[in-house]
Amino acid sequence: MKEISILEIPQHLDQEVTMKSWVFNFRSSGKIYFLQLRDGSGRIQAVVSKDNVSEEAWKVCEQLTMESSVEVMGKAQEDKRSPFGYEMQVKDIKLIQRAEEYPISKKEHGVDFLMDKRHLWVRSERQVAIMTVRDEIIWQMREFFRQEGFVLTDAPILTPTSCEGTTTLFETDYFGEKAYLSQSGQLYLEAMAMALGKVY
């Protein structure tokens, strides 16, 4: 059975496939579990019917928690009723890891709490959308400069002196020597421009 990502679902409709993903939400209506899954490439709803899976697979559903990781096997179909456009009819499900109690619930949380749990907060739909848009903007900018003949150069992160004013200088210890987070790549770009011409 071929293993695919959620993003590849449209190319494998009505085919038996395997997906590895995280459970970011779920609900039960007696003999049916509705699992909302994500794998980084997308999201999909998976339907587990007690009549269509083994007793062992059903027990897996009964012990699921938010952010548990699972492997699901079944067929995906286009479904306009689904919030994700597609739905997977599960034939088997295996638990990879059962997550401990997830601290970020659907209720409102303060910024301090969310920043303290930043490594978990980035899994939320809003944060994923922000990072995806950011990725697209950066790649479009780089593509523009590349088409215009510019060369990407990386200036050092740490410098021995300030590039701009000292009021915003961030000092750190570098093996016993004073070093500062770079405020600008200007000095290095000026040197690189003499070697490569158009740089950014």
Q: Measure the end-to-end span.
A: 47 Å
CATH fold category name of the largest domain: OB fold (Dihydrolipoamide Acetyltransferase, E2P)
Unreliable spans: none
The value of Rg in angstroms is 24 Å
CATH superfamily of the largest domain: Nucleic acid-binding proteins
The CATH architecture of the largest domain can be named as Beta Barrel
**Total tally of structural domains:** 2
Protein name: Asparagine--tRNA ligase
Domain Aminoacyl-tRNA synthetase class II (D/K/N): 112-200
InterPro entries: Aa-tRNA-synt_II, aa-tRNA-synth_II/BPL/LPL, NA-bd_OB-fold, NA-bd_OB_tRNA
Pfam family, one: tRNA-synt_2
Descriptive notes:
Strand 5 and strand 6 form a beta hairpin. The protein has 200 residues and is of the alpha+beta class. It has helices spanning 55-62, 111-116, 118-121, 125-147, 186-196, and strands at residues 2-3, 16-28, 32-38, 43-49, 69-78, 86-97, 158-159, 171-174, 177-181. It folds into two domains: 2-97, Nucleic acid-binding proteins (OB fold (Dihydrolipoamide Acetyltransferase, E2P)), CATH 2.40.50.140; 111-196, no CATH class. The radius of gyration is 24 Å and the shape is elongated.
